[in-house]
Amino acid sequence: MNKKTPLVFRDMILPFILLTTCFAAWGVAANMTDPLVKVFSKIFTMSSLQSALVQFAYYGAYFCLALPAAFINRRFSYKTGVLTGLGFAALGAFMFYPASQSMAYGYFLAALFILAAGLSILETSANPFVIAMGPVENATRRLNLAQAFNPVGCNIGVFLGAALILTQLNPATAEQRSLMSSTELQAVQTAELDAVMVPYVGMACVLVLIWIAVAMLRIRPAREKVVAHSRDVHFRATLSRLFCNRHYRFGVMAQFFNVGAQTCIWTFTIQYVMDALAVNEVRGGDFLQYSLILFLLARFAMTWIMGYIRASALLTGLAVLAAALCLFMIMSPNIAGVWALVAISGCLSLMFPTIYGVALQGLGEDTKFGAAGLVMAILGGAILPLAQGAIIDAYGSAVSFIVPALCFLVVGRYGLFDLQSTCRLTGVRSPAAS
């Protein structure tokens, strides 16, 4: 790697810094949502499978809105996409207030869907925006640097979820709630749902402030191209080229399983800790916080290590390690298994941005729609937790971690595939190494 190559173009430094706040913002949203699976399970007395619909609504929205976001970016600009995403996300977060007043699970799912729809547009726009802000040769490393601020938001999200939501849950069990009068039960649920609402409305206000800051900046990366009219978006031809690109196609599949694994790990951390150590939700939330702190530190560490070790090699090694840790958890549902679960977050740290950056290499004018496909792959976060929830209901939380273990093996295979593809190009260094 050429050490003199700038990581970000000089006139893009301020926009790059501002965009990092967007990466942090969707980290807050995603990780405030993870504890909601356990929270709604307790408030509404539902099974793990039913409460996992939280993740289905959240990540399902990512799938539905990624392609419209690509059209926005292609026709207008990345900035327009970022502003549209921030606007929808703020609207969805504000909707938690009427949802809490209605006391209906379905309204919360609708609010989550709109929130995640905005975040889908935001992510589809912000990730390739960062890639376009500097030289091609270190695009993957630059994206890892921007993504390093995502776990800052993740930690804030987990803290807010633990401090403002989990601590406000009434300790009454499902059996005790069934014995309450309708008036008593409604009073308990009202207090708990108000606790869910407060941090989301606060986040909505922050998103509005970020929207204003982005709107005031005049930014357009030199490598970004837009079309003059919507009819100039040749969608079928673009889709055909992307589908025929084996490297990109495998990258989308790897991202599907990567996000599925990550969502499974963080969604059911609290459940696993409670079962393994016989503790309550608050203590389980502490270990989720430890996981996110490790994720944060590892993301910065991996960004530095990528200056010396090929990104695909790191991806392969950490995916295999994560799968092994999952198997250890299954066999040792105790304190050792809990710490193995925490360690998996260190392995997760580089996976999303690395797969994203490697899969988009060389797509040229197809990058905006290619980015949408990779965000649509986040659908894995909607589907795979449902599978894990069903296994928990049938066999217990420990056995259920076979789901993320299998996902990690697919991710590791993609890293190996990229390394093998590079070796076939004699004398050409892998772009992922930059």
Automatic annotation (TrEMBL):
Compartment list: Cell inner membrane
Superkingdom of source: Bacteria
Topology relative to the membrane: Multi-pass membrane protein
Regions that span the bilayer: 12-32, 52-73, 80-98, 104-122, 143-166, 197-217, 250-268, 288-306, 313-331, 337-359, 371-392, 398-416
Cited InterPro entries: Lfuc_symporter_FucP, MFS, MFS_trans_sf, MFS_TsgA-like
Keywords, alphabetical: Cell membrane, Membrane, Transmembrane, Transmembrane helix
Main subcellular location of this protein, as a coarse class: membrane
UniProt protein name: L-fucose:H+ symporter permease
